[in-house]
Specification:
By secondary structure, the chain is mainly α. Helix content is 61%, strand content 11%.
């Protein structure tokens, strides 16, 4: 079976190898994603906001770990990687990155 290899751009070392999904597996994942979208679409906006706020909290709590992964996989500095996680967390919380205020 074919594989995708993740290589650390700074060292050239192999991070991990991933087997490619079969066409049937890809179609199964797409079907599940479509079903999940329909559920999400029908959620009340306040419920969606709660999910996003929780996601923002998880990103903040795990920013060091996630930042290290980004650094290893993409070659960014750790500072750049953690900043990337913080920006994602900020947006998930519904904040405007430039002003620090909530979107209206």
């Amino acid at each position: 079976m074919k594989k995708i290899v993740s290589i650390n751009p700074a060292t050239g070392e192999v991070n991990e190898e991933f087997e490619l999904y079969s066409e049937d597996r890809v179609n199964e994942v797409i079907k599940k994603a479509k079903a999940a979208f329909l559920e999400w679409k029908n959620l009340d906006i306040s419920d969606r906001a709660d999910y996003l706020m929780n996601a923002a909290k998880v990103l903040q709590r795990k920013k060091k770990e996630l930042g290290e992964t980004i650094t290893i996989e993409m070659g960014k500095t750790i500072k750049e990687s953690i900043t990337e996680i913080e920006k994602c967390s900020f947006r998930a919380a519904g904040k405007n990155i430039n002003s620090g205020s909530m979107n209206s």
